[in-house]
Amino acid sequence: MFGSVLNYVTLRLLGEGPNDGDGAMDKGHDWILNHGSATMITSWGKMWLSVQKDVVSLPDGLSTYVLLIWEEEDLYYPHPLVQDALWALLDKAAEPVLMHWPGKKLREQALHTTMEHIHYEDENTRYICIGPVNKGYNGSQLWDTSFAVQAIISTKLVEEYGPTLRKAHAYIKNSQWYIVINCYQIFLLEVGYYARRNGSLTCESYDRSLGILQGVGSRETSTNGDGGFATYELTRSYSWLELINPAETFGDIVIDYPYVECTSAAIQALVSFKKLYPGHRQEEIERCIRKATKFIESIQEKDGSWFAPFPLKTCIWRTG
Question: One GO molecular-function annotation for this sequence (predicted)?
Answer without folding.
Answer: oxidosqualene cyclase activity
